[in-house]
Amino acid sequence: MTNTINLLQTKTGNTAQLLAWEQKLKSASTVAVVALFSIGLVTAGSYAVLRWERKTLEETKARLMQDISRQRTKEGLQLLVKQRTGTVANVLALQRPIAPILDTVAAVSAPQEVQTVTYDEKGQVRLTVKAATIEAAAKVVADMLRLVQEKRIVNPQLVGLSLGKDRSIQMTVAFVQSK
Amino acid sequence: MMIALRRLFRTYKGMIPAVLLLIFSVGGFVYGVVPAGRIVWRLVSEREGVKREVAGLRKKSQTLGGLDEETLRSQLTLLISAVPSDKSIPTVFTTVEEVARESGIGLTAVSVANPGALATESAKKQSTQERKLGSGIVPVSVSGEGTIDQIRDFFKRAVSVRRLLRIRFFDVTFLSSDRAVVHAGLDTFFSPMSTTIGDVQALVEPLTNAEEMTLTKVSGFPAGNIETSAELPLSPSTRDPFSL
Questions:
Q1: What pTM was estimated for this model as a whole?
Q2: What percentage of chain B exceeds 90 in pLDDT?
Q3: Which of B5, B30, B54 is the last residue of a domain?
């Protein structure tokens, strides 16, 4: 029988629980450290690869820019050609064939009856005709109506009609030449 | 106090390394991995941007490499003969005279409105039509006499010559059943050259089919005896700093 008394507790009451916690913490810390190093390695690797790729791309970009700068004359010419082609195309689209208007005039009246033909900026044609008889004047109107039906002219108008002292009929008609 | 601390240390001493490792790991994540991840993510975004730029530059370089400078110069010369970079009044007169001579009408008057502007072209206010067209307009007034066939031929030729003309209006007065006097208002066109080119990264597109067709059409127009007075200007080589 011992005659000494150990006043210090050698074991705590919750030792088993603490040991379990200790084990859990050890496992968690191991996992955390491994994860930290793994992710750190992957991140560092990615960083290195990306830096290298970026450097390569920057070098390629600089080389291409130098190449393009060497071809600046061609670039300028191409730009001018494209710009001017657009302008020329716009002008060509604006041009209207005028010669067919005179063919239409010839189809409406006999050359000896025509006095003036005007074509204005809005595309309207005005034709002044001096017809010797009423029949000739009526023929002008009939011919215009025929051309409307043939879709060669649109919007025909009788602008003026007067009877001369020599009983001739002066008439002004207007129309728009179909495109 | 010290005794309590010692007791606490003795009780939990098995846990301390694990806790310290956990703290180290959390610190490593917060102060190491997360900022590094952000940097990597930024690098990925930047790489994509640079990749796109490189792809655009490569395409531009290839497009430029496929272009022939001499062909471009001849195309530009052709286009300038159709729409010069200045009013080029001599070519207007030459063209009108040539068209009249070939059609057979006798010119009695040719006049150009505002042949020389006091203001510079950039200071001159453009009309709506000029803005729409992208070119300046020089009105020309023409008077002449001839047969109806000659006048018809004049109108036909006027809109199919190399130096582009447009008949804005005309007034034909018949002198007899065959002869007539014609007074016509024509327009000729000019468009100043650009003096700058875009940013080095601006795309250069090859000519489209429609543009090729325009070139073919213009090259089919007779140039007559008109000399292209305007020398081919220097290609713009200064980059516009405001182009992007």
A1: 0.76
A2: 58
A3: B54
pLDDT at B243: 56
Q: Which residues of B touch A117 (CB under 8 A)?
A: 170-172, 174
The ranges assigned to domains in chain A are: 12-95, 99-177
pLDDT value at A1 more than 80: no
Nearest to A120 among B15, B25, B169 (CB): B169
Nearest CA distance, A70 vs chain B (angstrom): 10
Q: What percent of chain A has pLDDT over 70?
A: 92
CA distance linking residue B136 with residue A92, whole number of Å: 14
The pLDDT of A31-43, averaged and rounded, is: 93
Do the chains contact at A33 and B211, CB–CB below 8 Å? Answer: no
Question: Alpha-carbon distance B138 to B160, whole Å?
Answer: 18
Question: In terms of CATH, what superfamily is A99-177?
Answer: General secretion pathway protein M, EpsM (3.30.1360.100)
Tell me, yes or no, whether B7 lies in a domain.
no
Q: Do A71 and B134 touch (CB under 8 A)?
A: no
Q: Which tops the pLDDT comparison, B213 or B239?
A: B213
Interface contact A10, partner B, CB < 8 A: no
Same structural domain, B77 and B102: yes
Look at residue B234 and tell me whether its pLDDT is greater than 60. Answer: no
Among A102-116, B17-31, B112-126, B150-164, which is the least confidently predicted range? B112-126
Closest residue in A to B11 (Cα) is: A12
Q: Do A115 and B174 touch (CB under 8 A)?
A: yes
* Residues from chain B contacting residue A110 (CB–CB below 8 Å): 177
A123 → chain B, closest CA residue: B169
Give the closest of A36, A76, A82 to B33, CB-based: A36
Contact B214 A88 (CB under 8 A): yes
Cα gap A81→B207, rounded to integer Å: 9
pLDDT in tens, B102-159: 999 999 999 987 766 544 555 566 778 788 888 889 999 999 999 999 999 999 999 9
